[in-house]
């Protein structure tokens, strides 16, 4: 499985989590109150302190069908009116290997509709690429983690309130040990589809076969590959549509354009390492030394092991001196990097389901023009595209600010609900 060694909760982190739990519990006792946020703080802290054993892979690993559950366990700290499970399930990587992937499944409590609940499978934006950067390892409420929604799912509360089951993969190699997957489209996309399959195996979710895909940034890339491959890879799922916010699409130009700042160097360290690890053994020239400077080659392993958010300061300390001195060659013209990036760029085939694309108009990471060109390309392939430009919005907030139109767009596909005026009046990119 090309597994990396596991990096479970460090003693220092465990002590910090316990301290947070104790402090929060004391505050609740003193004040006599116990809000949803405080409950999630206590329960999420317990989860973080006790989660390590779940991610240890079985030995031996018994082969299983894509999406087959290996194990699941209830997760504390779910939003009010919902329950959650940590899951470990089978998937398939780009090389055709049977792999194990971790993630989280959430569902509303209370009686389900007679026809069951539709699944929304979520692709998360970049949190890192190493095992410890998996969203399911950081089950903390907003007041502690800085995330607007727990579990790192943008729009989680609204999705659950609307009655959806939410499946959220970590991606392969994150959480549970496995092959690298950063911006490797088939591997990511399969894990998104297989998370939905896994959700259907938990009886309490009452999940049916209807599926919506939702992803932001790296997660948009994953959701687009899932949509491209759903009919052949997971034909039993009834895919209704895919919504993406600032998706990573034109990978070559994305890496080339962003490499001039610290974010680009950081993201490049994740992508080039993943590609070298996955494709290097079978693709001549797919080595870090063929695309990076000697300084870049030396620093990249240290960057790859750091998480984008929780270890941002350390990551930037390594990346900043490499600005202007990271790439040794142009990845869009250098073999085999150009062909590898092209193979992992979505849009090779048109989608058979509607596509919603949101893009912040002041995004400096994923350029608006690249996203417009992707949407227009999808139009030429026959995809039904809805494009929304989110005003005065950069990369980080675009998914949250798009929810006002994403949610009714989902409802329209799921139940036939009318579209809001903002969408019916949206200019077509086609």
TrEMBL record:
The chain crosses the membrane at residues 14-37. One of its GO terms (molecular function) is triacylglycerol lipase activity. Keywords: Membrane, Transmembrane, Transmembrane helix. It comes from the Bacteria. One of its GO terms (biological process) is lipid catabolic process. The keyword Lipid biosynthesis does not apply. InterPro entries: AB_hydrolase_fold, Lipase_secreted. This is Lipase. It comes from Subtercola lobariae. The lineage of its organism: Bacteria, Bacillati, Actinomycetota, Actinomycetes, Micrococcales.
